Amino acid sequence: MKNFLTTIFGAVLISVSMTSFSQTTLKIGHVDIAQLLAAMPERDSAATVLGRETKEMQKTYDDMTDVYNKMLDDYEKDQAVLTEIVKKNKEAELLDKEKRLREFEQTATESLQKRNSDLIQPILDKILKAVDKVAGENGFTYVLDVSKGSVVFTSKDSQNINSLVLKELLPETGKK
């Protein structure tokens, strides 16, 4: 009798669970994070800062390249009259300058990528917070980001909530 009651209770529990699960509807929305990011005023100031720092690093790189090219031209011009010891010394200097150029280029690229990430991350955090708020207030089960191209299909039932998120992010402009 105890096994029979346990079986009945389990069957009822499974039945209730399946009924409540099948009644749950999914509400799916989508946003374009890249589009939202482009609409943020902070993005312009971040781009200005990054542009200024990029120009500064580019000028330093150009100056280093000019010095290297001058050394190379001088070496090629004087190569025929240089002694073997001086020639080897100049070749070593050229190799050192070339190595430093490559290292600077790599370091500058990494630095600019990190700086870009540092400048953009607070803006992305603000956008994601607004998406979370809009999704919660409007009962969305899932919100997909279509900007990365990983969503291959968007149903007509999926709602584009960019305008709702922009209202949350930029209430003073009344943008839709």
Write the layout of secondary structure elements.
Elements: H1 2-22, E1 28-31, H2 33-39, H3 41-78, H4 84-138, E2 142-145, E3 159-160, H5 162-169
Parallel strand pairs: 1-2, 1-3
Helix pairs in contact: 3-4, 4-5
Give me the strand/helix succession.
HEHHHEEH
Tally of strands: 3
| Cα distance spanning the termini | 65 Å
Summed up, the domain count is 1
CATH fold naming: Protein Binding, DinI Protein, Chain A
Description:
This protein is mainly α. The chain has a single domain (22-169), classed as Skp domain (Protein Binding, DinI Protein, Chain A, 2-Layer Sandwich). It has five helices and three strands, in the order αβαααββα. The protein has helices at residues 2-22, 33-39, 41-78, 84-138, 162-169; strands at 28-31, 142-145, 159-160. α3 runs antiparallel to α4 and α4 (84-138) crosses α5. The longest helix has 55 residues, at 84-138. The N and C termini lie far apart (65 Å). Residues 2-7 and 18-22 have low confidence and may be disordered.
Task: Give me a quick take on this structure.
This protein has 176 residues and is mainly alpha-helical. It contains five helices and three strands, in the order αβαααββα.
What attributes does this structure have?
single chain; 176 residues; mainly alpha; Protein Binding, DinI Protein, Chain A; 5 helices; disordered N terminus
